[in-house]
Write a structure and sequence with these properties.
By secondary structure, this protein is mainly β. It has helices at residues 18-21, 70-73, 80-83, 295-308, 316-322; strands spanning 9-15, 29-35, 38-44, 53-56, 63-64, 90-95, 101-105, 110-114, 120-124, 126-127, 133-134, 137-142, 148-152, 157-161, 167-172, 182-186, 192-195, 207-218, 226-238, 243-245, 253-257, 260-264, 270-274, 280-286, 335-340, 346-350, 360-366, 372-380, 383-388, 391-396, 404-411.
């Protein structure tokens, strides 16, 4: 997982209804077939270079942030109300059905609620280990009644906050059949989508190993968790002191769409859909020319990991020593981010090397039935996190690395 940068900008956009029903499908051809009970949708564009492209309007509808929003400027910086507009490490920004947005702020361990104009409604949570407190919170999803599910990995605990900001319940998962899960989503029946991190004994220096990721459905009972899918993760090399991930190998992307697990991994632009029993039920593919990995990409990616200190004090000399033993792929991964829209559409961002932080990203959009819809182009540096009812939310940074929240429109 990439580390969140200190200054993040959250963007919420109004999405044109054309994205769901207008002409993008006219530009593409697709076929649907069944293979051993698996529905496979193959899409391709005969004129890929002129495929339907949308972009996000650069002018926001509103901005939430200590520097930008007018409301915050009218309140003294020392008041609790003004502090609600200050962000240090945004970990999630999720759209609500009333046009507002919830923001999970990691710096203060707070969940904050804003209305459709960007005004602060309430905040809940703080740093700590008690009920309603968090050490390392993450957003899991929202229940049908509007309640919000949060996960604290440091204590393996689920916390449910009501739509009014009131603490509903907490549930510990310190041990599930002898193992501690790390949750990444919540199913409609309140079970969790989780992985089980494991530790291995250090192998001999120079050993390569692939981190295969298993995705499980976990309940709050003693019932054995259900394995939903396994997908390969990064190829790592053990130097005797450091575990270095091979450049251009990455973790599989995962998200929930109702009771379905959505996974994308590897160099092919493919999406896999699993049901709650772990049965693969659908696969979506789109034809796209793969992007070749070159020496400059590798060097700049390594320099970025050193700058970010992802592997501690590892130096360029260490990388140069061990890189020849790493099986660097000839092609980049297809995608590096997955977002499930409220209507079931899937947004997958075309892979961008780690060192590229301010690009105008492009996303493939698949309808709920798996048919490729077209491409959405987002502003430089924007990290999309939520698509709902014709709007789009995302995270980015301003020139001073200061976080804020914005609302934009998507244009054809």
């Amino acid at each position: 997982m990439r580390r969140a940068s200190r200054g993040l900008l959250v963007v919420v956009t109004a999405l044109s209804s054309a994205c769901a029903s207008d002409s993008p499908r006219d530009d593409a051809t697709f076929s649907v077939r069944d293979s051993a009970g698996i529905r496979i949708v193959d899409s391709r564009s005969p004129v890929w270079g002129t495929a339907s492209v949308w972009r996000v309007d650069s002018l926001p509808h509103f901005v939430i942030g200590e520097r930008e929003i007018d409301l915050a400027a009218t309140v003294q910086a020392t008041t609790p109300e003004s502090s609600a507009y200050h962000f240090d490490a945004v970990r999630a920004a999720e759209l609500r059905d009333d046009g507002g947005v919830i923001v999970l702020e990691g710096g203060s361990s707070e969940l904050r609620r804003f209305d459709g104009s960007g005004a602060h409604l309430w905040s809940v949570g703080r740093l700590g280990g008690g009920p309603g407190e968090f050490r390392s919170p993450s957003y899991l999803g929202t229940y049908a009644d509007g309640s919000i599910a949060l996960w604290d990995r440091s204590v393996a605990r689920l916390t449910v906050i009501g739509p009014d900001g009131v603490l509903r319940r907490t549930q510990g998962y310190e041990s599930v059949v002898g193992r501690q899960p790390a949750a990444y989503g919540v199913f409609p029946d309140s079970s969790l989508m989780a992985v089980f991190p494991t530790s291995i004994s250090p192998p001999a220096p120079g050993t390569l190993f692939t981190d295969t990721i298993g995705f499980w459905r976990v309940t709050d009972t003693d019932v054995e968790p259900v394995l939903l899918a396994r997908h390969p993760g990064p190829v790592a090399l053990w130097t005797g002191r450091y575990q270095l991930n091979t450049p251009f190998t990455s973790n599989p992307l995962r998200a929930l769409r109702g009771s379905q697990l959505i996974v994308s991994s590897g160099r092919r632009p493919s999406v896999f859909v699993y049901d709650t029993t772990g049965q693969l039920v659908e696969r979506y593919d789109v034809q796209r020319v793969p992007v070749t990995v070159n020496a400059d990409d590798i060097d700049r990616t390594i320099d970025f990991t050193i700058e970010q200190k992802w592997y501690g004090d590892v130096s360029r000399q260490v990388w140069n020593e061990w890189l020849p033993r790493m099986p660097v792929p000839e092609q980049q991964p297809a995608y590096d981010q997955l977002v499930v829209a409220s209507d079931g559409a899937l947004w997958l961002r075309h892979y961008v090397p780690l060192h590229v932080r301010d690009a105008a990203f492009e996303w493939d959009v698949f309808a709920a039935d798996g048919v490729w819809q077209g491409i959405v182009r987002t502003p430089p540096g924007l990290l999309v996190t939520s698509v709902r009812d014709g709007r789009l939310a995302g995270i980015a940074r301003d020139s001073l690395d200061v976080p804020s929240v914005r609302v934009h429109a998507i244009l054809r």
